[in-house]
Amino acid sequence: MTKRTQILLVCISLVIALVLLSIWRWNSSSSYGTGGFNSTNWNERYKIDSKDPNGLYLFFQLIKLKNPNQKIVVISNEYQYDSILKRSENATFLMIADTIGLTDDESTLLKKRLLKGSSLFLSASKFSSNLLDTFGFDGREKFAFEKKIKLNFESKSASFYSVFQQDTIYDEWTGIYKPSTSSEYQFDPLIRFQSLTALLRIQLPKSVVILHTLPRTLVNYQSKNKNAFEYNNFLLNQLPKNQTIYYVEFARVKNEGESYDDAPTAENSLLTLILENRVLLNAMMMVFLTAILFIIFRTRRRKTIVPIIPTQPNTTKAFAETVASIYLSKQHPLSILTIQKKNFFDTVLRYYYIDLYRSQDDFALQMLSEKTNYNIAELKHLIDCLKVEKEVSNDFVSKTAKLQHKFYKHCGIIVPEEEKWKLQFEVSRNIWFTFLVFVTGFILFSAGLNLLVKSNGAGVILWILGTFILIFGTIRLIRPHIAIHPKEIKYYSTFGFSKSIPFSDIRKIEIVDNSIDIYTNLKTFHFAKMDTMKIDIAQLKGFIHLNKLYDNR
């Protein structure tokens, strides 16, 4: 497979992965649009941004639609409530719940604010007595036990149904029976049903209080009905416009079975929070992809570069034959010593750029000793032996050659045969295919988690499958294809299991068009060249030439 083909396959794989991610994200995010959100959570009630059946998302969207510039602030605790009520600006306070409760001090502080010009919209089935006493209200709460009720307003009517988990049931519809007539404030019943008041307007000197006894008519599943939507619009018309709205959320007394925000429930888990928030979901995906890229690029191999040495003729044998012919022609050991001297001086000049032909003083030898870390005394002794011009014996020439080879071995110019096998490196698998495996595993793993949060059984299969694919990608990343060790070659299967081949059993190694073949005395091992990094194949070629493994041994 050519490099261009590999790049093309990787690009196509990334495009497919991005398309799958986009489809999954679109399916996930489309469920949060108006009309497309499906929820089975009927316990969470009256939350300002909740799209659950009993949430208030559509009601507050209507407020924003009527007055786009109107500011809405949620008061979530008594400290914030106390701070806001002490301000001088006029505002509208909203309290919506099945049961509303405030302390005496909180009710008194609210009344002072209302008398200065702020308004209040109070929608609840039950009110704390101190809150009603604030306005001198002594009406009694009554209820009608019905499946549905019909409310008339402005020559229009709207029907509301008592629904729980998509079943219509009988339930209590609360109203006020005989509101007070002895209070100093004016009471105007606006909507009635079955001799009960559902909407009461209390006129204060500078503001108004709207008392509403049917909070369930404001929730999402009711507001989807056109007539109910118009009913909610009628309620909002009773409030002053262009005032900041404060939703007093902490005054809501939660019902039995309704979870608090800080409770560690399955429906309000951290994973659910991430998957339901587009920004957090994008951040989680970026973290996963960054982690994958970090793992891949952090695990770059750090090993000795193996030079590619082309096959060469046996120069040692040719050199020996040349020296032997010179010796036989002249029949004098001094001629051999002269060749040794010329060879040594040429080698030093080629490797260390020190010309011993022109300068053989202490400075030149000291510089050569520092460059090679060779003992200065032994180096001077070698130079003195090479400079001898008198008659020498064959034994002297042999000892000088040993001193010369000792210097070469110390400097690494001559590498002993047994040391060539000490080189270690790894031939790794194709990193691009491993990256594709990681991306696929991440997509399946994330999709499985998303389905599990939504209680979809298919999420178990996708989550387990994605986990196994990520494990498989990790094994491919950690385990190499082939590992070269001083005494053996290890090769690894697809799932990371290793086997060893001793060097003594290896006859030759060949790299052909589609595979890497290792021939031993018993069998031949084949490895896919396509699944091997190109740079590591070049390393392996250098290793083969360095250790002469290209011919049968």
Summarize the structure.
By secondary structure, this protein is of the alpha/beta class. The chain has helices at residues 3-30, 57-66, 78-85, 104-115, 129-133, 220-223, 226-236, 270-276, 278-298, 315-330, 333-352, 362-372, 376-386, 394-411, 431-453, 458-478, 534-546, and strands at 72-75, 91-96, 99-100, 119-123, 126-127, 140-146, 148-153, 156-161, 163-164, 167-168, 171-177, 186-193, 196-203, 208-212, 244-248, 425-427, 482-484, 488-492, 498-502, 506-511, 515-520, 524-528.
Q: How would you portray this structure in words?
A:
The longest helix has 28 residues, at 3-30. A 7-stranded mixed sheet has the order 1-15-2-4-14-13-12. Strands 16-17-18-19 form a 4-stranded antiparallel sheet, covered by helices on one side. A 3-stranded antiparallel sheet has the order 20-21-22, covered by helices on one side. The chain has helices at 3-30, 57-66, 78-85, 104-115, 129-133, 220-223, 226-236, 270-276, 278-298, 315-330, 333-352, 362-372, 376-386, 394-411, 431-453, 458-478, 534-546, and strands spanning 72-75, 91-96, 99-100, 119-123, 126-127, 140-146, 148-153, 156-161, 163-164, 167-168, 171-177, 186-193, 196-203, 208-212, 244-248, 425-427, 482-484, 488-492, 498-502, 506-511, 515-520, 524-528. It has 17 helices and 22 strands. Strand 7 (148-153) and strand 8 form a beta hairpin.
Low-confidence stretches: 29-36, 259-268, 301-305, 307-312
Shape: elongated
Q: Bin the strand percentage.
A: 15-25%
The assembly state of the depicted protein chains is: single chain
Instruction: Provide a count of the helices.
Output: 17
Give the beta-strand count: 22
Alpha carbon gyration radius:
45 Å
Summing up helix and strand content along with how strands pair, one would put the structural category as alpha/beta
Note the gap between the termini: 31 Å
Task: Provide the helix percentage.
Answer: 40-55%
Q: Give the integer mean of the pLDDT values.
A: 76
